[in-house]
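Suppose a colleague, Dr. K., hands you the sequence of a protein chain of 309 amino acids and asks what its three-dimensional shape might be. Before reaching for any lab equipment, you can write down a predicted structure in token form. Begin with the sequence itself:
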Amino acid sequence: MKIAVLGAGALGCAIGGTLAEAGNDVVLINRSRAHVDAIRAGGLRMRGPDGERRVAVRAEVDCSALDPVELLIVLVKSFHTQQAIAGAASLVGPDTVVLSLQNGLGHEDILAEAVGRERVIAGKTYVGGVMLAPGHIISGTVGKETLIGELDGSASPRVQRIADTFEAAGLRTTVSTNIMGTIWDKLLINVATGAVSGITGLTYGPLYAIPEIEETAVAAVQEAMAVARASGVQISYTDPKAPWTKAAAGLPDDFKTSMLQSLEKGSITEIDFINGAVVRWGQRCGVATPVNATLVACIKGVERARQAR
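The predicted structure, expressed as tokens, is then:
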């Protein structure tokens, strides 16, 4: 397939590099000139369980002059989605499928507004990546599942073809006929821990030792579950405490949520696509979400305070 990865950081390079290695025509798009130049000069260096290898793959900073692709994988930060897809118009042709593998909820609406809802499919991936240096990543693809699906739940030939392409490259991929349920299941875990960790500045060890924080987190999840059900989304959780418990499973006490990491860097967070998404969906279906709304307000306050410092 002819594929472009929009937002080819560590995760995008892990997926895009693996697809390129399998013989697909891939272009990695990243705003970092140093990262792109390193890939151009010596290939993408990918470190995995079996050692390190170099993958020859095209890399670009600017995609405005590129031709349309069959598959556009979107992996930019949530708050860059609108700007990124607007700048990638040249990549979207009559037969292009746009696949969001981003965290949170709401990207599919932004992408649909830009390219048409009929072009957009959604997904979640558990593939990992760590940026070691420009053009050099740790690739965590072995045994890590990716789920993709049509927004309307249909099992379409185009989604199956994408899954087959991923599978042929060694990326374990499942077609879901309930992709929104899958997205919400992951969202509930982020709702449980991201905001409370960002507000308090606590890693998982001390975070999970405070009963009042657990009570707040579970209340936020309970609101999100009520919103999902009222919106007709089939989620797998029935106990609101389960996402809170699962979030910490297998992770060390010093683990930092991505929201806390963003705040420590002085960056804005993806709160609008996590707890903020719960609030927006709640407004649509008439379910009150005061706990999530409060968490959103607090995170925005922390963002402002850290940026001011």
